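Structure tokens please, single chain.
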Amino acid sequence: MPLTDIAIRKAKPKKKPYKLSDFGGLYILVKPNGSKLWRWKYRIDGKENVYSIGKYPTVSIVETRVERDAARMLVKQGIHPAHDRQSQKVAQVEDNANNFVAVSRGWIEQRKPKWTPHYLRQIEKVLADDVYPYIGNLPMRSITAAHLLAIIKRVEKRGAATVAILIRQWCGAIFRYAASHLLADADPAAMLKGAIDKPKVKHHQPLTKKDIPRFITALESYAGYRSTVIALKLLMLTFVRPVELRAAEWKEFDLDLAEWHIPPEHMKMREAHIVPLSKQAIELL
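Here you go.
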């Protein structure tokens, strides 16, 4: 006859442990100290084993029977329930250690040799300000698309849609990195593509043919720093990015060969670049 709560509560301790049987190999072991422990008896390879499910009433009758049924499925596969539970505990400990902050730092460490210092600072600041406070301590496998959607919508709401899109892209890269190291099973950010409308980018208007002579004339009469005038002229003569010119060092220039050797760390694509120098550029330098 199946056990009831009343029958279990009425069971009094004795000098020696004794059993109250439920059904399907399940029983309660009543100890002399009064504790009542759920046990399930099963066989694997003809050998009898006992699985400890928990303590009554912390684990109820219904919960115990559900656990017994799950354990029975494992036994059918030749798996000891206690071994499976221990494996799950180890996996959970590993998951807790592999939270979003830890994994994202691993991704950054791997990728940063290919980034400019400015881009590295941008990623670290955005993650620290907008992502870590909400999912930083969560295990990677527990983070869902809903978590990420709430983050990017929060950023979009403050008027930073471009940053929200970058967060989705960076989180996607972090999850792909995690999956490649068996720390995640999927990329929840992939489902959020299109969740944020990309703002229309308005580029600075280029100078027309008529504008260029007027700009150069105005530049010659500029009363500010002479270095600013030289820099603007060099930009027109070399077609480099402003950041590459600002970060330039004298050791990069070979005026005899009329070449400017820009090192990889100053280039967006992290590849060395050689810029031929015209006579006008050399004169300015």
